[in-house]
Design goal:
CATH superfamily of the largest domain: 2-enoyl-CoA Hydratase, Chain A, domain 1
Number of strands: 19
CATH class of the largest domain: Alpha Beta
Radius of gyration: 28 Å
Structural class: alpha/beta
Strand order of the largest sheet: 12-11-10-13-14-15-16-17
Number of domains: 3
Distance between the termini: 14 Å
CATH topology of the largest domain: 2-enoyl-CoA Hydratase, Chain A, domain 1
Number of helices: 29
Helix content: 40-55%
């Protein structure tokens, strides 16, 4: 089936002020497939503009979208084709400039989701109305490592001021692609009128009629375009460094274009500058990798590759065994997403009380922020049983184990659970590295056990590794995928191999980083060199977040399984056994703890590595491990590795996941003579 094409449908209505034209963007699908702009859409818009330019009796134009959707920008499938991407800038500018030049008032009636090119076409109208039900507005282009290329960087500063333009075009995309709710967009100046959704179209038509008759006016004379520029630019520059380490050019390009417009640059010249920037960026690896990343994390993973085609068990009652820090987070998530009776089981009453405080505190926060009604929060609190008895777990359909990483302890808990659960109840373990298959060997029904590995903090990181042990049933595996979906997490399937996907690759990455210490490089030098890949933090800062002992335990599991390749450096063992909370003493300005620095012995005659050599050592170690994982069938597809690294390890979108990065930079071809991701896989959803 071919993808739906957005068409511009033109109709007319005779009103007391004259003949009005209504231009509706509609791809013929429901709101699940939003309006996007590809070559056919621009052709349709051109035809509509031909008719409007030739009309002699049109008094005004109202541009709007289909129900719940205005338009969400470029068709990314078309954009991934370089030919279209390179001509897209001129196509959009030419069409939108014609819209802007129409000889009668035009109003964009933003009735639904409005992003990227959708917001840009709206800015080309004389005025904008905004519905309270529009849900989301944004410029996501910098997140995809391009720039708004259809006038956004040139018109936004002129309409809302440079401060708000920088925040919405540069800062928001870098801040996890943050979007605007309708009220915020209106307050920033992206709309001139804010109407209730129930009467939105009628109110928008009346507003257009008022502009035609002169009863309504738009006054932007009080706008100081340059107000707040220095602060907004400095904040953006700080975020660019913090989020990308300067590893991608798009944010800086966007800043330059916005400043050009804000300082009064010629609009026609600004359009050319946008086109030049877009042409430069889309042909670079960062933009193509970003589109690949977007397709993986927003489309492919939602189809849940690897999920068995059998019904999942319905979850009417859930339980979490282990109510410590991780268990409490898991309990809060399960309660808020599943909304079924929940049992929190632990051996310690004090731990259970702290767990209660966490779960109820999270609900109270949602109420305080207006995201949940007090009655709903009270109802959810009443669904939770805090207990030290396994008897209360009886009747649960889904049980998650979240205790210490000890095989004997987990096996004992599984045995206790099997004594009270029915035969079809699914038992999931949140282990980060232990064998799920071994964990289930002493059960009468090992087919009920599945790995379900979350990443910390649970509420923030979207990845769940679904681990398939040897004897797991299709129903249990399908249930795990379905629970992940209900929890609003992205599930990636892997076999029951030591440390699974993310922790296995990060441990190998860390090994390459520690090897650089042996060469005489400092912890800070290694962290800074690795950060220049665009990562949010270096490996030694990450160690502090993960926990030194947790990382050591994972490393020990991998050393036991694979030997020399994961041999633990004595320096790492000394660091982990130091009792320190991390590598750096942040209270002392981020200096390395002296005893941790002393744990590293530089090899005799060693020479410190350059930043490029440090990066190469770490990256090639990960490349070797990723190839082994694919060859051994740990994952079915390189795209699974990339999805896991993007969602679980913070690997930057503009690097496309580790496998795509290795392909684009030539590492995979040099080391293995073939790419990780085939052209066929790259183009597939």
């Amino acid at each position: 089936m071919s993808d739906p094409v957005t068409r511009f449908h033109l109709t007319y209505a005779d009103r007391p002020v004259g003949r009005l034209a209504l231009l509706t963007m509609d791809n013929g699908e429901d709101h699940k497939k939003p309006n996007v702009f590809g070559p056919a859409a621009f052709e349709s818009l051109s035809d509509a503009l031909d008719e409007l330019e030739a009309a002699e009796d049109v008094a005004g134009l109202l541009l709007t979208g289909k129900p719940f959707i205005f338009a969400v920008g470029a068709d990314l499938k078309a954009f991934s084709q370089l030919d279209f991407a390179l001509q897209a800038g001129k196509l959009g500018h030419d069409a939108f400039a014609r819209l802007q030049a129409l000889p009668f008032p035009s109003v964009a009636a933003i009735n639904g989701a409005c992003m990227g090119g959708g917001l840009e076409i709206a800015l080309h109208c004389d005025a904008r109305t905004l519905s309270t039900g529009a849900q989301v507005l944004a410029f996501p282009e910098v997140f995809l490592n391009i720039v708004p290329g259809w006038g956004g960087t040139q018109l936004a500063p002129r309409i809302v001021g440079v401060k708000d333009a920088i925040e919405t075009i540069v800062t928001n995309p870098l801040n996890n692609n943050q979007t605007m709710r309708p009220k915020e967009a209106f307050e920033r100046g992206y709309a001139d009128r804010f109407f209730d959704s129930a009467t939105f179209l009628d109110d928008s038509v009346a507003f257009l009629e008022g502009l035609i008759s002169g009863e309504e006016t738009i006054d932007r004379s009080g706008l100081d375009v340059m107000e707040g520029f220095e602060e907004a630019r400095n904040n953006a520059l700080g975020m660019i460094e913090g989020k990308t380490a300067g590893a991608t050019p798009a944010p800086h390009k966007a800043l330059e274009l916005i400043e050009f417009a804000a300082r009064g640059g010629d609009l026609a010249e600004g359009r050319v500058k946008e086109q030049e920037a877009l042409t430069e960026l889309v042909s670079g690896r960062h933009a193509q990798a970003s589109v690949y990343s977007f397709n993986l994390t927003q489309q492919r993973v939602k189809k849940q590759p690897g999920k068995p085609d059998v019904p999942a068990r319905r979850i009417r009652r859930a339980a979490i065994v282990g109510a410590g820090l991780m268990g409490a987070q898991l309990g809060s998530l399960h309660l808020q997403r599943l909304e079924v009776p929940l049992v929190m089981k632990d051996i310690d009453e004090g731990v259970l009380e702290r767990c209660r405080e966490h779960i109820e505190g999270e609900l109270d926060k949602r109420v305080a922020k207006g995201r949940m009604k007090p009655g709903k929060a009270g109802f959810l609190k009443s669904l939770v049983t805090y207990t030290t008895s396994y008897d209360d777990v009886a009747g649960a359909d889904w049980v998650m184990e979240a205790v210490l990483e000890r095989m004997d302890l987990k096996q004992a808990i599984f045995a206790d659970l099997e004594a009270v659960l029915d035969e079809q109840a699914v038992i999931a373990t949140n282990t980060s590295s232990l064998s799920v298959t071994e964990m289930a060997t002493k059960l009468a029904h090992p087919e009920r056990v599945v790995g379900f590995h979350f990443f910390n903090p649970v509420a923030v990181l979207p990845l769940v590794e679904v681990i398939r042990p040897e004897k797991v049933s299709d129903e249990a595996l399908s249930t795990a995928f379905e629970v992940a979906k209900q929890l609003k997490k992205s599930a990636v399937l892997c076999t029951d191999a030591p440390a699974f996907i993310v922790n296995r690759l990060l441990t190998r990455f860390l090994g390459g980083s520690i090897a650089a210490l042996r060469q005489g490089n400092s912890f800070q030098e290694v962290d800074d060199a690795i950060r220049r890949l665009g990562l949010p933090m270096g490996p030694f800062v990450l160690l502090g977040l993960v926990g030194l002992q947790v990382a050591l335990h994972t490393a020990e599991t991998l050393e036991d399984a694979f030997g020399e390749r994961f041999a633990i450096d004595p320096a790492f063992r000394g660091i982990a056994d130091s009792g320190r909370p991390g590598i750096y003493d942040w209270e002392a300005g981020g200096e390395v703890y002296p005893d941790i620095a002393a744990a590293v012995e530089v090899e005799e005659g060693a020479t410190p590595l350059s930043a490029d050599e440090i990066r190469a050592m770490a990256v090639e170690a990960v490349a070797d491990e990723a190839r082994r994982m694919l060859d051994d069938g740990v994952v079915a597809d390189a795209r699974d590795i990339d999805t896991a690294m993007l969602l679980g390890a913070g690997w930057p979108f503009f690097n496309g996941g580790i496998c795509m990065y290795l392909d684009q930079t030539g590492v995979s071809e040099r080391l293995f003579g073939r790419p990780f991701v085939t052209d066929k896989d790259h183009g597939r959803g």
